[in-house]
Design a protein that fits this description.
The protein is α/β, with parallel strands linked by helices and about 290 residues long. Helix content is about 40%, strand content about 15%. It folds into two domains: about 1-40; about 40-285, TIM Barrel. The strands form two sheets. Strands 1, 2, 3, 6, 7, 8, 9, 10 and 11 form a nine-stranded mixed β-sheet that branches. Helix 9 runs antiparallel to helix 10. The radius of gyration is 21 Å and the shape is globular.
Length: about 290
């Protein structure tokens, strides 16, 4: 049989390109699946891990976020603050007292000084350091969504955060949480590709938020939840975010399925934030509400 070198070479190149294409597809599948469900399948409920909480690692740590990725969490909620020298770091509290082996305000330390402290898990120190926002972006790029709970004030700080997101081309992975929805338009002007998630404290707030442009998701409170209101929101293309934190997570801890059953009796919900992400994923998957 006479097989030319060029024929073998062409086949080799084809197989190599096919392998690279499949590898690229595999890397993109998880994020694409999350975004597809977010935009096109409101019947699928996305799971948001509050501060990347899980039973084995400190909150807001790279290890906790890595574990969230591994178990299939869709969204990790993180809290952004700033060091003394202006670096964006991940920390919920104003001080490092509760979560590290140090004491003092976050913005009293430079980034180098903050990196000297160890994050605690319970009362024990770990090897985990306080992450920077950039480290979190590097870890999660192409893998999940990030809910950015912004603890800073002022447009300059928002601009700095958006610049970092743009540096990694991760605009489509961000939900930027705002406590005060009137600020929405101001920050949308900085980058319209970054999704702003305003919080509504009442049905009146919902009506006002619906007047804004380019809002795809609203953080609602259960105090004013009504099936009819949420059904109309979802039918209009919005996504509804609700918390299991506190009441429902506590119920779930005391009796399996009780908390999530109670929460999901509210039929029109698209994203649930919880301190029990692995349990919620299992619950939703058993009911075909999560892929």
């Amino acid at each position: 049989m006479n097989i030319s070198f060029s024929s073998i070479w062409n086949k080799t190149i084809f197989v190599l390109l096919l392998f690279l294409g499949l590898s690229s597809l595999a890397q993109e599948t998880k994020l694409d699946s999350i975004l597809n469900d977010y935009h096109n399948h409101p019947e699928q409920v996305l799971v948001a891990a509050h501060r990347a909480t899980n039973p084995n690692y400190p909150e807001n740590s790279l290890a906790a976020i890595s574990e969230s990725i591994r178990i299939g969490v869709d969204i990790v909620e993180i809290d952004i603050r700033k060091s003394k020298d202006g670096e964006l770091v991940i920390m919920h509290d104003k001080t490092i007292d509760r979560t590290t082996n140090g004491t003092g305000k976050v913005d009293d330390f430079t980034l180098a000084e903050l990196k000297e402290f160890k994050l605690k898990f319970g009362d024990a120190n770990t090897d985990e350091q306080i992450p920077t926002f950039e480290e979190v972006l590097q870890l999660t790029k192409g893998k999940m969504l990030l809910d950015v709970d912004f603890k800073l004030e002022g447009e300059a700080a928002v601009r700095q955060t958006f610049d970092m997101i743009e540096k990694y081309g991760m605009e489509k992975q961000i939900l930027f949480f705002l406590y005060d929805f009137p600020e929405t338009s101001q920050y949308q002007k900085l980058n319209r590709d970054i999704k702003i998630m305003p919080r509504a404290y009442s049905r009146k707030d919902i009506r006002n938020i619906r007047k804004l442009e380019d809002i795809s998701i609203i953080h609602i409170d259960e105090s004013y939840y009504r099936d009819g209101t949420m059904r109309r929101l979802i039918k209009s293309g919005y996504r509804v975010w609700i918390n299991a934190l506190g009441k429902y997570d506590s119920m779930e801890t005391e009796a399996k399925n009780s908390g999530f059953d109670a929460l999901l009796s509210r039929k029109y919900v698209n994203v649930i934030q919880t301190d029990l992400p692995e349990e919620l994923l299992s619950y939703l998957r058993s009911r075909n509400l999560h892929r």
